[in-house]
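Progress report, Aim 2. The chain analyzed during this reporting quarter is listed below.
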Amino acid sequence: MPSITAESISWEAERTELHTVLQAPIFVRSPALSHLLSYLCEKTFAGETNEIKEYSIALDVFDRRDSFAQDTDSIVRVEANRLRKRLSEYYARDGAADPVRITIPVGQYVPRFQHVAVPESAGTEPQQSETHRNSLRPEWFRRSWVIAVSITLLVAVIAAGFWVREKSKPPPIFFPAAQQPREPTIGLPVGTEVHILAGSTRKYVDHAGKVWNPDAYFTGGSAVASSVQHIWRTQDPIIYRNSRQGDFSYNIPLKVGTYELRLHFAENFYGPESSGGGGEGSRTVTVSANGEILLHDFDVLADAGGERTAEVKVFPNISPASDGQLHLTFSSGQSGSAMVSAIEILPGVRGQLRPVRIVTRDVPYYSDDSRWWSPDTYFKGGQLRASQEPAEATDDPEFYAIERWGHFSYAIPLSPGKYTITLHFIERNTAERNELPASGRDDRTFNIFCNGRAIISNVNLRDEAGENRPLTKKIRGVEPNAQGKLLLEFVPVTRYATVSAIEVVPE
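Predicted structure tokens for the chain:
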């Protein structure tokens, strides 16, 4: 018996269903998931199911590079899981009567097509005799002919009108499903990343899933370890417990391109509560890249606002020198030894900083528009709280599942320029919060300051959006302070302040 090849299979019904699904509002609002579904189905229709693998999906759909490592980048698994949920929602509502259903089995990426039996309405009608049916045929044909002629004339008149009105317009351009133009899926440039733990001999995987490698590419200086446990403004104190100190340099090989350099510091020796005593002015550092000074007499403790506090300095538009290396030089100031805790080099965007997206949870998150949000960072104060009640009036209720609440702040490192801040909030119901406000008032009101200036005053989430419904606030034209930070302070007025996510995008 001859085997059935991919070419001999008719996918007409399945293609029709794919087109129907992609036209549904729930998928129109999510171009990234639509592109993923189209890619998986078109590969199946072409008989190329053996090519549907995590690696190829990452490259073809999510624009990852050949160096994609699925152990540290879970985008394909995360997006496939979101696609399964979205298909389930579609077939529970808009697609409940569809004759074909598309599913993506858990643990797999090859789609399956289930044909659903549709009840025949004719089966409930009384049967007519063959003689009676034959007697109705001439009349039915006459009526059909009249209707057909009328429709044809009407269509011709309408078409002529459109032709007169549209003849001067250029013809529209149609794209196959797999080639539809789309917005960037993640919003961050991809490529080679470098993560170095200065002074450390071990690897470390942080809360964002990034792999930090042991110290390398250095010349001079000494590795110094600290016994400090808690470091403010980070979920990853391990990054800041070791450092390289003295006068030293790094010569880091890089491919040709534009990068964003992030230098990580934490003063664990000097300070009123630290072993070295002293405070501001106890240590100053000068840093240069390829001979150009980035930081001059930089005081880590003064810049961070205290000891044992994570401090990050960000520099866009970094490129390797002509020898294919980035040359970083760290020189000691008049007091104390130069130091650095970690070096991070990320693919950059010429002329601007990478967007900063923070969601209040201890793991990264891909939002409904397929943008990557880093786990909670740069914060001080407050607590995290999860809700079991799904948010309403949003396509992405999981995005609002966790909040940071209390009296807290975020110190977000930036380079000079103007930025737009977008803040995401939600007000949960009183019974779920299980709080007893000391003031006797149930409403939550709070203020938000940016670099000491009030940007939102007495916000009441319930009054503005209602209970269990997201609220978004956008502030434009914001600039970092002299220390290169947006210092966002969330100050309670009645009960506690709250936030679910923070986005900072260069203008």
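The CA atoms of residues 55 and 68 lie 7 Å apart. The chain is about 20% helix and 30% strand. These observations will guide the mutagenesis work planned for the next reporting period.
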